[in-house]
Amino acid sequence: MTVTEASKRFGQSEECEMQDIKLIINDEEYEVSVAPYETLVDALRDRLDMREVKKGCGGGECGSCTILVNDKPVNSCLMLAMQAEGKNITTIKGLSKYGEELHPLQKKFIELGAVQCGYCSPGFILEAKALLDSNPHPTEEEVRIAISGHLCRCTGYQQIVEAIMAVAEESK
User: Fold this and answer.
1) Is 104-170 CATH 1.10.150.120?
2) Residue 162 to residue 143: CA distance in whole angstroms
3) Does domain 3-94 have CATH number 3.10.20.30?
4) What is the DSSP secondary structure assignment for residue 101, as one 8-state letter?
5) In this structure, are residues 76 and 134 in contact, taking their beta carbons and an 8 Å threshold?
6) What's the rounded Cα separation, in Å, for the pair 36 and 146?
7) How far is CA 41 from the centre of its chain?
């Protein structure tokens, strides 16, 4: 549901309730006007045109909208935009700045076929980054537990696990 749809559904005027907030996204500061009930995924996609943040189920079930907030994975469909004010947000674009080399996780996902349709990939990669930042050498079981909140209809998960494990192995 978009912000406009939500405001109509709840009988609220979007314009009269907007509030200005500052978001720090991929090391850049943005000022954006949001409704108090607007989710972070909607603010990122609809207000800031950050389409790299995917919107899947809208209820925290698929993991497609996962971003990092203060280096922790968050389902952006479950977080209000106003809750993110002043926090460091990382989207998939924040892992490798335009024109620079891909992050090792991005490279391995491509190399090992963990990217097929690609819709779920940003969420998986950001979840994996958070895991490897906190546990550089996870077991396969720990990887599977970490990604258990993500749905992929293409890969069967094996290539995703292999890509994450390969990055962990290379960092030894």
Assistant:
1) yes
2) 9
3) yes
4) P
5) no
6) 31
7) 9
User: What pTM was estimated for this model as a whole?
Assistant: 0.89
Residue type, 159: Q
Spatial contact of 132 and 143, defined as CB atoms under 8 Å apart: no
Q: What is the pLDDT of residues 20-33, one digit of tens each?
A: 999 999 999 999 99
Give residue-wise pLDDT tens across range 114-172. Answer: 998 989 999 999 999 999 999 999 999 999 999 999 999 888 899 999 999 999 999 87
SS3 assignment, position 90:
strand
Structure tokens at 113: 């076929």
Place of tokens 């077991």: 139
Q: Which residue has the tokens 């909607």?
A: 42
Can you tell me the distance from the alpha carbon of 84 to that of 8, in angstroms, rounded to the nearest whole number?
24
